[in-house]
Write a structure and sequence with these properties.
By secondary structure, the chain is α+β, with helices and mostly antiparallel strands. It folds into two domains: about 80 residues; about 120 residues, hypothetical protein PF0899 fold (2-Layer Sandwich). It is about 55% helix and about 10% strand. The strands form two sheets. The chain has a four-stranded mixed sheet with strand order 4-3-5-6. It has a two-stranded antiparallel sheet with strand order 1-2. Strand 1 and strand 2 form a beta hairpin. The longest helix has about 50 residues. The chain is rod-shaped, with a radius of gyration of 59 Å.
Length: about 250
């Protein structure tokens, strides 16, 4: 150990490497630190590059005056560019949303068409599938409606009863005797005047007022026959004929 004496008279001790052992000493160097280019660093560098490029393009695009300051025209151009870019992005997003809504609407329409088709198939069931009770109810309802319609017609138009009487009289045999024509009381005078039955022999022709008969019909009786031309019987015959024709078509 070597003793070193300073100017102040203090002494400090330190290790001194002998001259002969210098060959075994290794020089210390700063260690090498490996820099890894991780994904985060790459993304950061890319983002920084984009910002730099956008900033450079932004400032280069500005129209500058003689003092190097951006002009109004340059600022408006940048604003228009930003607006156009935003509009294009919004347009694409709107088209995507509209396409999705259209597909949903088409799907709903298909479901409604399917339901409507099923309903129409149920409504097109053959008439034969209806039971007898329902059929009779429909017939009764039809007769009631027809009677009401005919009643309204005969109350204002007497041509109907005259036509019925003419048809009934023509169906009688030529040598018919003791003919009695039963009519509604309000239609006796009309038929009597129209057919001029008053000039006939009272023993051969006789008009009888029958309150039980409906307007628009008559009942003809002779000594040997009876002809039912009442409103109810004619309606029933017409409906029966119509129902028979419908069954043949089915």
């Amino acid at each position: 150990m070597e003793t070193v004496v300073t100017a102040e008279g203090d002494s400090k001790s330190r290790k001194v490497i002998p001259k002969g052992s210098s060959e075994t000493v290794t020089l210390w160097q700063t260690p090498t630190v490996e820099v890894r280019n991780t994904q985060t660093e790459v993304q950061f560098q890319q983002s920084a590059t984009k910002v730099d490029n956008y900033s450079n393009g932004f400032f280069k695009a500005l129209d500058r005056n003689e003092f190097g300051m951006p002009t109004v025209v340059g600022i408006e151009a940048i604003q228009k560019q930003a607006y156009d870019e935003a509009y294009e992005e919004g347009l694409i997003a709107g088209r995507t949303a509209g396409q999705k809504e259209l597909e949903e609407s088409i799907q709903q329409a298909k479901q409604q068409v399917t339901l409507l088709t099923q309903l129409m198939e149920r409504l097109h069931r053959p008439f034969q599938e209806l039971d007898l009770e329902v059929e009779q109810q429909l017939v009764s309802l039809t007769i009631a409606l027809a009677k009401q319609v005919v009643k309204n017609v005969t109350e204002s138009d007497y041509e109907e009863i005259l036509a019925v009487v003419r048809e009934a009289v023509q169906l009688l045999p030529v040598n018919a005797r003791g003919v009695k024509l039963y009519l509604h009381p309000e239609e006796v005078d009309i038929v009597n005047n129209a057919l001029r039955l008053a000039e006939c022999d009272e023993q051969e022709w006789q008009l009888v007022a029958d309150p039980a008969l409906s307007k628009g019909g008559c009942l003809v009786k002779t000594e040997n026959s009876k002809l039912d031309a009442t409103l109810e019987s004619r309606l029933q015959a017409a409906i029966t004929q119509m129902m028979g024709a419908q069954r043949k078509q089915d």
